[in-house]
Amino acid sequence: MRYYNTKLGKHSFLKTSTALRGHIPHAQLATYGSIKHMLDKYRSVYIKPNNGTGGYGIMKAVKLSNGAYQLKRGMGTSLYASYSSLYASMSNSLSRRMHLVQQTVHLQHYRSRPFDLRVMVQRNQMNQWEVTGIIGRLAQAHKIVTNYHNGGTPLTARQLLAPKFDQAGLTRFIKRIEKLGLETSRYISKAFPSYRSFGIDIAVDHQMRLWILEVNTRPDKYIFRAISNKSMFHKIMRYSKFTWRRDKLPARIVRNRRVHR
Q1: Which InterPro entries match (predicted)?
Q2: How confident is residue 151, by pLDDT bands cut at 50, 70 and 90?
Q3: Which of 99, 120, 158, 260 could anchor a disulfide with 133, C-beta 3.0 to 4.6 Å?
């Protein structure tokens, strides 16, 4: 089976892991029927471009208790009396390129704004996967995405999670996040063996459950430079230089962008 380097392709491959399956939100190709089904089931969904980056082009649809529908994109919100009118408002975007629909994970908040976490995982000198950094992304007020290039504020994971734990509990929870990032990288590298770094977007929901929102095969390293302590950024850059040199070795190059299983 082919797994393409798209949001849906990576989601489909991760779902084949029994260990990771419980951490992956329900998602499928966005169509008239699938969006309606997901809204009926989850009441709130995100509609995302299959190949999008930076949080651009993402919409959030909500089925309200009175049967009406709400659509958020950017900082704007619109209301619709029926599902057909909601879908009509999205159809122009959906017709231009493929989208997926994903159940909403209700994120933890910090100072009344939602946040998620970016876990950077890289191959080390021993060719083993290693977590080289974790950073939090705090959404801009009234926005539906946390991405740095879409107004999100980078903060340390400890700062964002500290209100939920004592010191020992916080350390244990961050270890759980690191473990999930490592397990995800080890597994998805089977489908995408040429990549030596992954950026795993992990959400913490209201019950402190961990969710894998997305795996980035070309993660932005420079978001880690935005926090005052530069040690994570310097480590990531050291590993990136090592990665670049290893990738330049002809025996290491794997050019295929898809894998057959």
Answers
A1: YheC/D
A2: confident
A3: 120
